[in-house]
Design brief:
The chain is α+β, with helices and mostly antiparallel strands and about 200 residues long. The protein has one domain. The chain is about 30% helix and about 25% strand. It has a six-stranded mixed beta sheet with strand order 1-2-5-8-7-6. Strand 3 and strand 4 form a beta hairpin. The termini are far apart.
Length: about 200
């Protein structure tokens, strides 16, 4: 699910960044947004001429808990016993590394513009949203300078122009719920029936 969410965001941004911009050089045929090369993660090495999308944190969403997190009712009214959903927020860093510094800033500006116009991605405005992901809400986040310093030290690399988004939210649902047997008569019903009979 996490991989599908990030692949989807990568695809959306690549489609948008491939659109021509007046006064700027033509976009290369390669993807503008990439993931880290698996062999270059310690220390992190960002690809030159691209924006690297990097998952830096996963947090559980504490809000929006269901009244009964272990009960799911389908559209036809059937009830199922399930494990509680796990709702996650993803912290995704977009770091731009281009030979021309202004190009890095320009590409980051376009990412911000895209998510400004599309703060929520759902099946209506993004038909390629993977099945199982109802919506993704994009929240631009600014870390305090001390925390930014800690982040780049943890990545063991020099700072690159970047923006950080909290992506709300990816929900893991129980894929093997147990059907609940219908109960036709409750203990209370039996007491009332016995009282009426006597």
């Amino acid at each position: 699910m996490i991989d599908q969410a990030l692949l989807f965001l990568k695809g959306q941004l690549n489609d948008y960044l491939a659109l021509p911009v007046l006064g700027q050089p033509p976009v290369a045929s390669e993807d503008s947004v990439v993931f880290l090369d698996g062999d270059k993660t310690d220390p992190v090495s960002f690809k030159v001429g691209a924006i690297t999308a990097l998952l830096i944190n996963v947090e559980q969403e504490p809000a929006s808990r269901q009244a009964n997190p272990y009960l799911r009712v389908t559209a036809d009214g059937s009830a199922y016993q399930t494990h509680a959903d796990i709702r996650l927020n993803l912290w995704v860093l977009f770091a731009a590394r281009f030979k021309q510094y202004e190009r890095s800033l320009g590409q980051l500006s376009r990412i911000i513009s895209y998510f400004q116009v599309h703060p929520v991605l759902d099946p209506q405005n993004a038909p390629t949203l993977p099945a199982g992901i109802g919506r993704l809400a994009m929240e631009l986040t600014t870390l305090p300078l001390a925390e930014q310093n800690d982040l780049w030290n943890a990545l063991r690399t020099t700072y690159q122009p970047s923006v950080l988004y909290r992506v709300r939210m990816v929900t893991f649902e129980d894929q093997q719920p147990t059907p609940l047997r219908p109960v036709s008569t409750t203990a209370t019903d039996l007491v009332h029936a016995n009282s009426a009979a006597s």
